[in-house]
Amino acid sequence: MLNSNEEKFLNDVFLTLKKYIQNNDHTETVNPHRTIDELKNILPELDDTGVSLDEIHQELEVILSQSVRTIHPLFLNQLFGGFDVAAWTGEVASSLLNPTMATFEIAPLLTLIEKRLVKELLSLMSFEQGEGIMVTGGSNSNLLSILCARSHYNPSIRQTGFAHNYFRIYVSEDAHYSFDKAVNITGIGTQNLIQVPTNSRGEMIPEELERIIATDLRDGLTPLMVGATFGTTVLGAFDPVEKIAAICEHFKVWLHVDAAWGGAALFSKSARHLTRGLNLADSVTFDAHKTMGAPLITSFFLTKHQGILRSANRGGGTEYLFHEFDNSDWDTGTYSLQCGRRADALKLWLLWRSQGTDGLIQRTEHLLDLANFAAHEVSSNTRMNLIHHHYLNVCFQIKPLRTSENLNTFTLKVRKGLLASGRAMVNYAERADGTIFFRLVFPNHLTEKSHVTELLKIITETAELVELHGDLPLYS
User: Fold this and answer.
1) What pLDDT score was predicted for residue 317?
2) Buried/exposed 360-372: b ≥16 CB within 10 Å, e otherwise
3) Confidence (pTM)
């Protein structure tokens, strides 16, 4: 099937990718920090004639060299990162197989793999029964929770639409912004997404939730769903779900838990207590590309209500796709938002098979240990101010030597200088009171304590450069 040029091309490509992976911890560059104009000059135009495979290979090398190295141990900027060879193999193989997960007929073994993973995750969450499906990210899982809550409230809404627009969705002030998008998409409206106040640790205050729901009911509104969070993106907070669940039970409201970031605590002995009450939820978001080492995107929607996914998503396709045959009950397209759907399950399957549950627990414990170590090192550093530490999140500021320097402005300058150096990537965040700080997160199992020490040293050195030279250019 392959001619000699194609065979050589594949060999060259895989050698290039192998070298990229092997050199991961031997390069100082995490971010190549090019300007947009520089990148435009690097990127060739599309043309009518095409180019040779040798040129494609050369272009791939350029793309690799000019992209952010998310597998690097000092890439700690997002809630994902790192590299796992078994999971990556699953990514490559699923692309090569290129099935659609809509029907069992086209993806028989892969369907069984996804269902096996769903069953295992349901068990970890202590759901005695239920169902689930993989989705294109935690945002879409949160969207699906609203659709299921709506269908649970009144299945006929799918046909009739809203008789009114008085539904209310409740999330914490620190909940993920995807809920805002979800209420827009579902037609509920952003004014009906109610942000419940949080305490100083970033946790939803149950008493405030109860008060708001009771007030809404008196005003003739319809509480539809509470979206609690396990592992908020900034502070890593876990909402008190046991108390929230009692409120939801009292008012007959669907309880969803966004555990995209905090779900990894299920694979931990020291932090599993954080997930108490998860079994009381109606549905859960879980991302295996956060902390577990699977490539983007490896996301699940899980619910204890069998049949709710089909009720919320069914419709069409029987005339050409969902044929009646022996295994048609295994078709997942009948309860998915998508038709064409990647075989993302293979990534997590090969990862889990390779590591085993014990290996995934060890990996999570390693990340928790890193976060504890980082918090201790920050607290011990006279130039740093620890703002908050919980779960895998460490929030801190770097202090200027000149007391006249604004702390927020200085932190932003140092972060800008950090990007300019290209040596590490750590994001920043801003609280409602205006406080700006570094948000250091630990999803990357390739990171070691020596890397944490190196990172804090780089940040301190960058602060010194900012003080000497002023605001450093982001790109050079």
Assistant:
1) 64
2) bbebbeebbebbe
3) 0.95
